[in-house]
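Quick check before the chapter quiz. The format below is the same one you will see on the exam, so make sure you can read both the input and the output lines.
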Amino acid sequence: MISISDACIACGICVGVCPANVLEIKGGKVVVVNESACIKCFACEDSCPTGAIKVENN
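Here is the expected output.
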């Protein structure tokens, strides 16, 4: 599961680093558009400047 908290500033860094195209910016917010494609590489979580993204590894 991928969760995005209110700390997200929609900078788009996570969207750019995700190799599976799981995230998009819609309506000024980052949203999960294809969670089943997530390969749990944690690139989005690691790159988020505000720590708003959490990827559960289960």
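If your answer matched, good. DSSP finds two helices and four strands in the chain.
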